[in-house]
């Protein structure tokens, strides 16, 4: 919680924090925060902006997070699910960060020398060097390559 609060503090510039609850719709979050079940999240919601989002097609975490990081659809970023098929060897493999086509939001922020903390986002393994820290989310198979 201290990390999130520090991200929201202003120190000579604008800051942003994105909190994504994978697979959880805004109506449920609104009910739980209103009922006092999630008081800290309620504080963040009151201090910032909250709104509904449309999901990607297909509605799969790896596809949706890739779309968030790239700002476009699967036809452009190249991730269609958690797994894919190698067209040459006909072997199935898990998609990972290295399969994401094009520059990401992280790349743009890095070029602007902005600090980033990316924690537990699906499809971000292996972690990449950036101006900040990254802890990869699902599927992270090697701890040393999952953290930067």
Overall description:
- With 148 residues, the protein is of the alpha+beta class.
- The protein contains seven helices and four strands, in the order H-H-H-H-H-E-E-H-E-E-H.
- The strands form two sheets. Strands 1-2 form a two-stranded antiparallel sheet. Strands 3-4 form a two-stranded parallel ribbon.
- A hairpin with a 6-residue loop joins strand 1 (83-85) and strand 2 (92-94).
- It is globular.
- The relative contact order is 0.11.
- The model has no long low-confidence stretch (mean pLDDT 89).
Question: Helix and strand layout, with pairings?
Answer:
Blueprint: H1 2-8, H2 26-34, H3 39-47, H4 61-70, H5 74-77, E1 83-85, E2 92-94, H6 105-111, E3 116-121, E4 132-136, H7 143-146
Parallel strand pairs: 3-4
Antiparallel strand pairs: 1-2
What features would you highlight for this structure?
alpha+beta, globular, 148 residues, single chain
Strand content: 5-15%
Mean pLDDT: 89
**Radius of gyration using CA atoms only:** 17 Å
**What is the molecular shape?**
globular
Walk across the major sheet and give the strand order. Answer: 1-2
> What structural category arises from helix and sheet content?
alpha+beta
Question: How far is it from the N-terminal to the C-terminal residue, by CA?
Answer: 20 Å
According to DSSP, the number of beta strands is 4
Briefly say what this structure is.
By secondary structure, the chain is of the alpha+beta class.
């Amino acid at each position: 919680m201290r990390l999130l609060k520090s991200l929201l503090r202003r120190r000579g510039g604008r800051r942003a924090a994105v909190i994504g609850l994978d697979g959880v719709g805004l109506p449920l979050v609104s009910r739980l925060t209103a009922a006092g079940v999630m008081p800290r999240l309620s504080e963040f919601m009151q201090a910032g902006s909250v709104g509904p989002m449309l999901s990607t097609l297909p509605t799969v975490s790896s596809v949706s997070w890739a779309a968030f990081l790239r700002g476009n659809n699967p036809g452009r970023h190249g991730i269609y699910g958690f797994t894919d098929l190698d067209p040459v060897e006909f072997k199935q493999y898990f998609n990972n960060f290295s399969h994401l086509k094009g520059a990401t939001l992280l790349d743009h922020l890095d070029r602007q020398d902005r600090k980033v903390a990316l924690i537990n986002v699906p499809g971000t393994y292996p972690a990449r060097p950036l101006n900040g820290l990254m802890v990869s989310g699902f599927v992270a198979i090697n701890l040393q390559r999952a953290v930067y």
